[in-house]
What does this fold into?
Amino acid sequence: MKSRGDPEARALHRARWVITAQIAVVVSLLVAVAGGIAYGMLLSGQHADADRTLARTIELGPTATPPGCVWLFTPALHAPPGPSPAGMPIAGLTALASSPGDVHTERRSFGGMTYTIRVENRGGVVSQAFFEERYQIQDRSSLLFGLGVAELLALLAAVVCGRLLASRAIRPLADALRRQRTFVEDASHELRAPLTRLHTRAQLLARRSSGRDGDDLQQLVRGTRELGEVVEDLLLSAQACGGRPELVPVELGVLADEVVAAEAVRAGAGRIRIAVTRERGPYVVQGVPTALRRVLSALLDNALGHTPPGGSIEVSLGAPDDEHVELRVRDTGVGFPTADADRIFERFARGTDGDGRRFGLGLALVREVVTGHGGTIAAVARPGAGATFTLRLLRADLT
It folds into this structure.
């Protein structure tokens, strides 16, 4: 699992970073929310303090010296004595407190500074008080700088801790994948030799036999060869670390004939008629022959397993347009509810009808292989009226 060229290793590497990023995002959001709450509380407190200071200044009047950064203006006097900042008082604000008891508060910027302004009518005398927010702005800037530093430090800490936690969380999965690959490789190695011997002996017996026995032995030879190809695919997949197999032109019509011929004995024993029909050919697609053969075998096995004696199965090939090849497996079996048309391709899904039939793993693997070939597969059925599976792939010359 150390090679970055390994798709599984790349997937685990991405998973580690995804988990790390998620942890970092959560921590950053928590710090940002906490910082936002702290900033909001500071801003609210500063505004409330400024409002209280201005109200108290107007209450005391210009005879008392206002606190620092505060200016008070009445029609007759202003405090503190001496020159005041340009723009004070503001004549247009007097009209906002025209009646006794009226109070108007706002925040306005002029002269390069922001002020909290309170206009109050006390007994017919309108006063304007100005609170300079210089130090409050500095406090807010200091808080924002501190929050930014805290956010950066929290993000770095989250990345480091998230990476460690992600590696610890992913390690069991990496070990499981390594054991799985080792098992597949070891099992494939162990199966290769006996399957090769079985295939060789079947070939020898087929050469010595004739008639019906010879035909049956030829089917046995093809079956052992296909099983050997499956084992070889498993071994190559394990050795190549799940790399993409090489695609070659595959004639679906030939595969259909071979798969139907391989199941002829089973179909005959179950008194099920099975046939291959064609519209127009050729039916060549780009794919992995062994994988597509297993797809057709799985579809035919599913049809045989759900078709009662006396029924029929038809494998039809056609070209719905100039870009696609279409293969259908239609049976007269028990079918399934329309609601299960998508669920049957899920791993170990159960049906929605009364018997809760379990569909197993085969159809799920079929969809994975078909999707991997850039194709689609769909199922249509009704209870008691059979089922039709439609496989559609791109033609070889268009892939």
Remarks:
- The CA atoms of residues 77 and 200 lie 117 Å apart.
- The longest strand covers residues 113-122.
- Helices lie at 7-60, 134-208, 211-239, 252-262, 264-269, 289-305, 362-372.
